[in-house]
Structure to design on (315 residues):
């Protein structure tokens, strides 16, 4: 009996130690140097295979198949979209043409990943956006979903993270971008319908330069100094489900050239009215600054030395 208890104690101790070391490993992966807007130096990381011990991973769970449609092609598409790695593995959902990680507490995605090509963004005349309806995502537990009523009279748009305009090849692709899990509260005039839309158009235009464009989009909740001199993270929530209103939104983009060279662009936009006269380049930031604030590592399968340009500047 004592030997059994000793073995159980040893096993629990081993698991706990492994969890601690695993957490320490990821903590040490943080960038050591402070950000400088004109600096393009990066810390080089080594990756190792690992599995969380005290949590479960539900990676790339397919969204429910509707109207008897065949979802057999989804796994292959996921491997294409996520070619350069998952930023995180929290509540990951795969759809026909994009992949999403859902934040159940804030009722807004952590991130949404897309893979665009010149062919995939071509307009299919049989695809009708007017037939798409905003609707709750049935793959999200009802406790954690947002609902159309949350946005009603809130003063905010249901802003796409995976843009509907990026998914016009099939009606189903466009339909699935209207799940509320792919939405976040965005200021309408001056942002969602204007400057944010300009950024979405810019991403699509990158397919004229690159045969493959990978884009990750998500919300940020950034701190702000208040009158007492202290920093606070404050954001509004809307509706009965307390849907979080992000203070900012980001896009991190990798363009893959025909000769397999990789170039990156990274943008952060405040969720507020922005003049259309403001060039998009104003919102370019070092990608690691987004990683630090989002708590995510983007394109972690890419060694930063493989990147030939970041925000248009040679490394």
């Amino acid at each position: 009996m004592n030997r059994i208890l000793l073995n159980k104690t040893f096993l629990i101790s081993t698991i706990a130690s492994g969890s601690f070391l695993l957490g320490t490993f990821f903590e040490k992966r943080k960038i050591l140097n402070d950000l400088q807007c004109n600096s393009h130096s990066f810390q080089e990381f080594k990756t190792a295979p690992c599995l969380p011990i005290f949590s479960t991973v539900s990676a790339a769970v397919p969204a429910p198949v509707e109207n008897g449609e065949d979802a057999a092609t989804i796994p292959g598409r996921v491997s294409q979209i996520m070619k350069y790695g998952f930023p995180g593995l929290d509540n990951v959902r795969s759809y026909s043409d994009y992949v999403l990680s859902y934040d159940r507490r804030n009722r807004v995605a952590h991130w949404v990943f897309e893979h665009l090509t010149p062919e995939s963004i071509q307009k299919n005349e049989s695809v009708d956006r007017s037939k798409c309806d905003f609707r709750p995502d049935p793959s999200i537990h009802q406790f954690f979903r947002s609902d159309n009523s949350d946005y009603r009279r809130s003063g905010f748009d249901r802003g796409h993270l995976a843009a509907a305009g990026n998914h016009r090849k099939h009606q189903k692709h466009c339909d699935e971008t209207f799940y509320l899990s792919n939405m976040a509260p965005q200021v309408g005039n001056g942002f969602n319908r204007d400057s944010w839309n300009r950024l979405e158009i810019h991403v699509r235009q990158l397919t004229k330069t690159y045969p493959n464009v990978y884009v990750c989009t998500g919300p940020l909740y950034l701190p702000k100094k208040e009158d007492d001199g202290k920093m606070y993270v404050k954001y509004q929530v809307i509706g009965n489900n307390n849907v979080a209103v992000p203070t900012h939104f980001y896009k991190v983009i990798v363009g893959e050239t025909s000769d397999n060279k990789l170039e990156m662009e990274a943008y952060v936009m405040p969720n507020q009215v922005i003049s259309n006269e403001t060039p998009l380049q104003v919102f370019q930031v070092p990608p690691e600054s987004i990683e630090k604030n989002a708590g995510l590592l983007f394109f972690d399968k890419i060694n930063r030395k493989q990147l030939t340009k970041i925000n248009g500047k040679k490394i």
Observations:
- The helical segments are 2-27, 74-81, 148-151, 171-176, 188-192, 195-205, 287-294.
